[in-house]
Design brief:
single chain, alpha/beta, Udp-n-acetylmuramoylalanyl-d-glutamate--2,6- Diaminopimelate Ligase, Chain: A, domain 1, UDP N-Acetylglucosamine Acyltransferase, domain 1, twelve-stranded mixed beta sheet, 5 helices, 40 strands
Length: 350
């Protein structure tokens, strides 16, 4: 593991150093586990107390976070990103596979594989496939006919790319993901379901990351599109003809039904479900386990089932939580009203 002077790290991440510039840092660590020689970070003010108890040799801190500490620190605009840059300093990316095609791989004669790509054991590559420069395809992957994979991409073990799909540059696809499986399309006629041929494709643009066992269905006709910078967690289902726009992030177990469009810079938490043929605007945030049944305008924060503006949902939940007490009050009032009616009847009778 390399070691760096604290001044070198500050210069590398563009931060302002407070403390001894000659302190030697040999690694990164979590704030509560860091010891001598390690650098950590503070991005969330609620961990200030943890910093006071930390044994780290240095800490990276947001400019907006006020701290009092004897630990040397580097002040940066974004501590989380500064820590990422530092982490990469100590853990540079490595090319794991050796260049070339493993002897056990099956590659069609018409496939075009870059000379500096790495193709692992038991990979199958079909006719007309193109694989770009420095791309790594790990063992047991399957790339079917006429698919294209760009430069510097990584397909981890057991990824399947179906026929005629397009994968851009610097795309990372984790174990077991399936790109281009058939869309779920059937016509019900005379008591039976008849399969609709799925003849479209999937287009994955540059700088996308796709989690393990995520599935992205090919379009019935046309394209299912995952645009630049999108980050998908594990176990996500994206149906046929969906469009996920740039720099959107989606957490695990989310399901997006067919022909739904999700805008730029959207954040979708875990276990969210979206019906088909709706539009989610740019900058939208969807809380965990929300059920989205209609279009959502730009910039809104929605939560719940059915998903509503988050403050409206919280007011509803507050009322629901108070229902037992409200029912008791209503029953007490009903009893009091009934008693008053009985007294009036008695008075009227006299």
């Amino acid at each position: 593991m390399p070691a760096f002077k604290l001044a070198q790290i500050a210069e590398r991440i563009g931060g302002k150093l407070s403390g001894d510039p000659g302190i030697e840092i040999d690694g990164v660590a979590q704030i509560d586990k860091a010891g001598k020689g390690k650098i950590t970070f503070l991005a969330n003010p609620k961990y200030k107390q943890a910093l006071q108890n930390s044994r780290a040799s240095a800490v990276i801190v947001d400019q907006k976070t006020e701290i009092t500490t004897s630990i040397p620190f580097i002040l940066v605009p974004d501590a989380y990103y500064g820590f990422l840059q530092t982490f990469l300093l100590f853990n540079p990316a490595k090319k794991i596979l050796e260049d070339g095609i493993h002897a056990s791989a099956v590659v069609h004669d018409s496939a075009n594989i870059s000379a500096d790509a790495a193709i692992g054991a038991n990979v199958y590559i079909g006719a007309g496939v193109m694989v770009g420069s420095k791309t790594q395809i790990f063992p047991n992957c399957v790339i079917l006919d006429d698919s294209k994979i760009g430069d510097d991409s990584i397909l981890y073990p057991s990824v399947t790319i179906r026929e005629n799909c397009s994968i851009g540059d610097r795309v990372v696809i984790h174990n077991g993901a399936v790109i281009g499986s058939d869309g779920f399309g059937f016509a019900f006629h005379e008591g039976k379901y008849h399969k609709i041929p799925q003849v479209g494709k999937v287009v994955i643009e540059d700088n996308v990351e796709i989690g393990a066992n995520t599935t992205i269905d090919r379009a019935t006709m046309g394209e299912t599109i995952i645009k630049k910078g999108v980050k998908l967690d594990n176990l996500i289902q994206i149906a046929h003809n969906c469009i996920i726009d740039e720099n959107t992030v989606i957490a695990a177990q989310t399901g997006i039904s067919g022909s739904t469009s999700v805008g730029k810079n959207v954040v979708i938490a875990g276990q969210v479900g979206l019906v088909g043929h709706i539009k989610i605007g740019d900058g939208v945030q969807l809380g965990a386990q929300s059920g989205v049944t209609k279009d959502i305008p730009d910039g809104e924060i929605y939560f719940g089932y059915p998903a509503r503006p988050v403050m409206h949902t919280k007011r509803i939940e507050a009322v629901v939580n108070n229902l037992p007490d409200l029912i008791k009050r209503i029953r007490r009032l009903e009893k009091e009203i009934a008693e008053l009616k009985d007294r009036r009847s008695e008075v009227s009778g006299k």
